[in-house]
Design goal:
The chain is mostly helical. It contains 1 helix and 2 strands; from the N terminus they run αββ. The longest helix has 17 residues.
Length: about 90
Amino acid sequence: MAKNTTNSEFPRVPCFLLALILTGLAMLPGLADANVSGLADTPWPMFLHDQRHTGLSTYTGAQKNTVKWTYDASGSFIGSPVIGSDGTVYIS
């Protein structure tokens, strides 16, 4: 009688586990290109601008001391104002 060696010599791996491993291996080349600094790719990527929290911008601000608008909040603010990419001012 002949010995059946079809599957007995290889470990059985569930299909979902094999698919998970192959997907992970396929993603490895992309991980080398990932942004490892943790900062968003925007002009002001985090609170206080950079990882040292300097609050300094690389852009030149207003060159004249003129008030363009005011807002009576009738209260106090806790957070710092933030200006969105479209010019909207957000205050909490």
